[in-house]
Specification:
Arylamine N-acetyltransferase fold, two-stranded antiparallel sheet, 6 strands
Length: about 100
Amino acid sequence: MYEKIVTANRGRGGYCMQVNLFFATVMKSLGFELIATGGRVHIDGGPGEWSHQVNLVQINETIYLVDVGFANPALEKYFGIKLTEKEQNAIKGTMTDLK
């Protein structure tokens, strides 16, 4: 996967699942808390199928949606995700299970 994404010099890395999984592996090896999860792309005003993969990365107390596998140049801003306490506890539990 490293060769395909980083060194192949083909102008693109791969499908969202491949690129985001590779990114997740690198981030975890650097000590970040992260979970990979499904995502839906909204096209023409409505959500599509659950056919996309994204990552949730916790940095300090903020959880970020990180998607390095979505080829849309409009998404160039970083933002934290506000979750309920129940959602935060569920994610933290999942992150603990991934260690």
